[in-house]
């Protein structure tokens, strides 16, 4: 009788232990499955993000857009305002992404990329861009003239000195000087012609140089007082304009496209 009672009492205990072990195993399996699913989800998200970044880098020049954004933020938030007749200074360094096939100096094409960034800062700091957009206008590059004097070497620091040298009724002419910080030598000089679309370049500059802050009446008063004047066209810019006109005439005679540029 006592033996029977002992076996009867032990059976529920053994069953309870087995149930607890099974439950613990189930919980552990569920936790492992959940952890595995989370890891797979995270890995998938990372792979998708990397794929999107790769596609974006193939379709867009991301470094250029990021640097343009940096120039915009720097000019609007951190650097002091300038007059349109001032010279702006943009500092940079020749990195490995700027090199040509010799790996010793800046690629020739990079000079035009760098003046884009310097021009963004100049237009914002001088208020030209704000006045241009107020008038509903835009500005585009239609010609460049580059003279390379010495290499900008790998990892060398330089600055781009930007100023407006001339403007007429339709265009603004910029000068960009690449000056090495080590010796102050002008490594390259770029003349850039920006065509103003949607408004008069001369009226735009009259307002900005006149100091009207976007007020055309105040700018006209300043101009009447003699504070405003269009600079004389530098001789090299004059010959460059003539060269472009001759090139345009030659192309029109050759293919008859009728384009004034």
What does this structure look like?
Keywords: Membrane, Transmembrane, Transmembrane helix. InterPro entries: HotDog_dom_sf, THEM6_lcsJ_thioesterase. This is Protein THEM6. Belongs to the THEM6 family. By secondary structure, the chain is of the alpha+beta class. 53% of the residues lie in helices and 19% in strands. It has helices at 2-59, 62-78, 110-126, 128-134, 201-210, 216-224, 235-255, and strands at residues 88-93, 138-148, 157-167, 171-180, 186-197. β4 and β5 form a beta hairpin.
Kindly list the characteristics that best describe this protein.
261 residues; alpha+beta; Thiol Ester Dehydrase, Chain A; five-stranded antiparallel beta sheet; elongated; HotDog_dom_sf; membrane; transmembrane helix
